Amino acid sequence: MNRTPRIRPAVGCTLLVMTLVVAATACAGSGGHPLAEKPYDAVDEIASNARDGDAKVAPGRPLEVTVKGDEGRITDVSAVDTAGRHLAGELDADGRRWHSTMPLAAGVRYTVRVSTEDEDGAPGARTLSFGTTSAKELLEVSFGPQAGTYGVGQPLVAQLSAPVADQASRARVERGLRVRSTPAVTGSWYWVDDQTLHYRPKGYWPARASIEVTSALAGVKLTDTLYGAPAKALKLTTGARIEAVTDAVAHTMTVKRDGKVINTIPVTTGKPGFATRNGVKVVLGKEYYVRMRGETIGIAEGSSDSYDLPVYYATRVTWSGEYVHAAPWSTGSQGYANVSHGCTGMSTGQAEWFYNTVRPGDIVTVVGSQGEMMTPFDNGFGDWNLSWAAWLKGSALQKDTAPDRDGTIQAARLRPEV
Fold this sequence. Notes:
This protein is mostly beta strands. The protein folds into 4 domains: 37 residues, no CATH class; 95 residues, Immunoglobulin-like (Sandwich); 101 residues, Immunoglobulin-like (Sandwich); 166 residues, L,D-transpeptidase catalytic domain-like (Beta Barrel). It is built from 5 helices and 28 strands.
C-alpha cells in the first residue's frame, strides 16, 4: 500500500519547542497529527465473512470483521440495516476482530462502517454493504384491539401466526414488540399462551393518553426456523377514566369519571346459585338489544329459573354472557336484593345512561358477591385481577420466572347470563 509517510505524534511535539512558525506548520495541514487527517481507505486491510456488493448472504449467522496481516487494528464498527436497527457486537481486546452478538436479519441490507488505525496511529475507514436472503418461514404479528378510543383498562393484544414456546425465543419476540405511550407508563407483556400476548401498564392507562404499538421483528431470527415478518403498527387513545364499582351487598353501582362520582345506581346482581363474579372486568362491547334465554346457561325449559327475555341497553363484560343491562322486571328488587342470573340489572333509564356513558376498555368492578373471582384471560379481559408481581412472571424477559399456568386460554362460552 502506498501512502505518504506520516509524522509520529512525538515528532510534532518536539517541533513545538523550536519556533512558532515551524510549530504552526507541524501541527496543521496534511503533515500534522494523524488523527487530524482524513481517514485513508482501509479496503486492503479489512476482511469480512459477508461479501461486499450485490451478492446476498444467508441470515441467521453472526457478522464478523477482521484485520488482514499482522499490523493495524479495528477501533470501531457500526452495522445498521435498512430498518434502522443497529447490529450489536463486540470487539476483541487486541482490536483484530469484531463480531456481532446477534445473528443477521433476513431480507434486509446492511451498511457496515469500519474504523481502523494503522501501525503509525493514522485513522482508516472502510464501508461494506451487503444484503441477506429472505426467510422461508415467517412469524406474523397482528395487534389488537382495532384503532380507536378506549377506556383506561383496555389491554393490548399481540397475536402470533405460529406458536413460540421456549423462553429464549419468547424473549426475542418481546424485545421486538414496542409500546410507547404519552404520558409514559411502566408496563409489560404477558404470554397468555404460545401465540397470544397481552400488554398492560402497572396501573391503568392514563386518561386521554396516546398509545402506539409497533414491531421491530421484521427479518429477525426468532426460532431455528422462524423469522419475523413486517407488522402493521397500531395507534390508540384513551378517554376519560370511567370506573364503575358494583357492591353486591349494598345493591348499588357507583360510577366515577376521573375520580369524581357522577352517578349512584340501584342494582340487583346474581342470586344464590347464580352469583355474579367478583373482581375487575373490562367493557367488551355494547349491544342495544340481546335475546337472553335460560337454556343457553343450562337452565331447563319449564323450571322456575327458566327465562326468555328481550334485553335492552346491554353492556357486555364477559364472553360468557355477563352484562350490565336494563331489567324492568326487577325494579322492585333493585337497591334491595339480588335476584338476577349473574348479570347486573338496573332500570331502563339508568341502563340507557350507563350504555351511553361507557366505552370498550372502561372498568367495571364487582365486590361483595358470593360468586367466584373473574379469571384473567379465558372470559374477557380479567388482566387486572393479577397483581403486578404475578403479571411480571408472565414475561419471558423476567429472569427465573415462567408464565402462570392460569394464563392458558380456554374455550369461552358465548352465552348470556341475565
